[in-house]
């Protein structure tokens, strides 16, 4: 068994145009002058895909709306800001991750990527996890991202989609991508924007929604994130972001109970959460 640990602390456009809307914003600051998306929103029987492109010194927001059944089997394009090529994703079905698993032959662990897609991709390429086309090449081995996917970086959305893509591809190869949720992930899902880059706040403002609505239960990324763990045991090794609080340990909950509690309360205001001590 080989284990690689890297603390990376420095670290859709959809072609169907049943209904497309474009609008430009003139008020965005220079940090918003970047691509973003796609954001996939589910609204009853329809889907909205929001993408942002910076063209001719203007930020253009595109909203495609179409019946939900037309989403099946479609490859959706992701255009990062970082100096890496575009890639496409296939949507897939997912279930909550188990809290225990066996140690694979190889395990790569990274942490605190926070939207730094370019360095993340370089790390995965150097270690043989992906190829130059950002396709999974790690076979039945595992990749573990130990928290803090959000904040600070300018490629949070594309980074999340690459993790999503590799989650699907690794499973098809017999491998696994583990996502451990950290404090910055929980903060974003709850709507705490203390460390959010202005470009994301400007987008939610332009759409007329709260920031946390970009990742709530009615979005594809939000639903996927809510199946992820806050604690994971691989053989005899425990993975958690930031540690365990004494009050949590005193409850003597098993990892499955902890993960279920966190998933049920992601995005909720403190007053609406079940009265369980602070996790980390």
In short:
The protein has 280 residues and is an alpha/beta fold.
Q: Count of helical segments?
A: 7
The structure class reads alpha/beta
Percentage of β-strand residues: 25-35%
Task: Going across the biggest sheet, name each strand in turn.
Answer: 1-9-10-11
* Biggest beta sheet summary: 4 strands, parallel
Please compute the radius of gyration using only Cα atoms.
19 Å
* Secondary structure tally: strands: 13
What is the terminal-to-terminal distance? 29 Å
Fraction of residues in helices? 10-25%
Global mean pLDDT: 85
The backbone outline, from C-alpha atoms, is globular
Strand-and-helix sequence, N→C? Answer: EEEEEEEEEHEHEHHHEEHH
Low-confidence stretches: 3-18, 22-33
Can you characterise this structure?
The protein has 280 residues and is an alpha/beta fold. The protein has 7 helices and 13 strands. The strands form 4 sheets. It has a 4-stranded parallel β-sheet. The N terminus is likely disordered.
Main features:
280 residues, 27% strand, four-stranded parallel sheet, 7 helices, four-stranded antiparallel sheet, 13 strands
Outline the fold blueprint.
Blueprint: E1 2-7, E2 19-25, E3 36-43, E4 46-55, E5 58-67, E6 75-78, E7 87-90, E8 100-101, E9 106-111, H1 117-126, E10 142-146, H2 156-172, E11 176-180, H3 183-190, H4 198-207, H5 220-225, E12 231-234, E13 237-240, H6 246-251, H7 255-265
